[in-house]
Structures are given as C-alpha cells and as structure tokens.
C-alpha cells in the first residue's frame, strides 16, 4: 500500500505560479497511475489532471488546460503539478491520488492553495 503526502500549497496572487509535490512512500510510485484533484469550499471534489505510470500520457480538465502541467519522477517517487497563470477560481484544497485499476484507491491529506485577486 502506498502513502501519499502533498506539499507546496500556499497563497499566491492571480497570475502567479505554484508547484505542488506529491511524495509517495511504502511502495514505488511507478506501480500507479496518478492524478490531482481539488475541492473548493462548498463544492464537490473535481478532477484536475492525470498521468500514466510511465508519464508518457497526460489528461487535463478543460479549466486548467494550458495553465497546469502534471509530471512525475518515478526515481524520486514524486509527482508534481506546476500551476501557472493562476486564477482565484483555482482556490481549493488539492489532493494527489493513485490507482492501479479504474478507481483511485489511495489519497493524500491535501494541501491548501489560495489565489488572491
């Protein structure tokens, strides 16, 4: 079983950038397809981006396409989310997650991202 820990959240002005990290322990991250999700206050958790085990293929939500980049370094057991040109509507708790099958089985505790206007 893998344990996931997010870091890198914080407060940023609109138009700014942040990079989130997701560190895996317990099992090698290369065994899992990985994803980022977020949950804003009063809203349901939503998909942000996903990356295959090898890192070759990525998929993004339309709301972040062209601004966010998901990547992974399996040698470091770490996944990243580079967020550029951020908007106030990007404010949320961001979660990383891993899966071996169709559903995400493993989740981190989340990291708060706040974008001020």
Short recap of the structure:
The chain has 117 residues and is mostly beta strands. Helix content is 0%, strand content 52%.
Provide tags for this entry.
mainly beta
Helices and strands, with pairings:
Layout: E1 3-7, E2 10-13, E3 18-25, E4 33-39, E5 46-51, E6 58-60, E7 68-73, E8 78-83, E9 92-99, E10 106-107, E11 111-116
Parallel strand pairs: 2-11
Antiparallel strand pairs: 1-3, 3-8, 4-5, 4-9, 5-6, 7-8, 9-10, 9-11
Order of helices and strands: EEEEEEEEEEE
- How much helix is in the residues? under 10%
**What's the main sheet like?**
7 strands, mixed
Count every helix, treating DSSP H or I runs of 4 or more residues as helices: 0
Give Rg in angstroms: 13 Å
Indicate the overall shape: globular
What is the percentage of strand-forming residues? over 45%
Mean pLDDT: 97
Structural class: mainly beta
The number of E-state strands comes to: 11
pLDDT below 50 for ≥5 consecutive residues: which ranges? none
Query: N-to-C terminal Cα separation, in Å?
Result: 40 Å
In words, what does this structure look like?
The protein is mostly beta strands and 117 residues long. It is 0% helix and 52% strand. It contains no helices and 11 strands. The strands form 2 sheets. Strands 2, 4, 5, 6, 9, 10 and 11 form a 7-stranded mixed sheet that branches. A hairpin with a 4-residue loop joins strand 7 (68-73) and strand 8. The radius of gyration is 13 Å and the shape is globular.
């Amino acid at each position: 079983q893998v344990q996931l820990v997010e870091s890198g959240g914080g407060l940023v002005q609109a138009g700014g950038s942040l990079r989130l990290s997701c560190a895996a322990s317990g099992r090698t991250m290369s065994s899992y397809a990985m994803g980022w999700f977020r949950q804003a206050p009063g809203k349901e958790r939503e998909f942000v981006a996903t990356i295959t085990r090898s890192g070759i293929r990525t998929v993004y939500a339309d709301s972040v396409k062209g601004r966010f980049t998901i990547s992974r370094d399996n040698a470091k057991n770490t996944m990243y989310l580079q967020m550029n040109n951020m908007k106030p509507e990007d404010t949320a708790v961001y979660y990383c997650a891993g899966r071996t099958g169709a559903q995400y089985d493993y989740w981190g505790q989340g990291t708060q991202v706040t974008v001020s206007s």
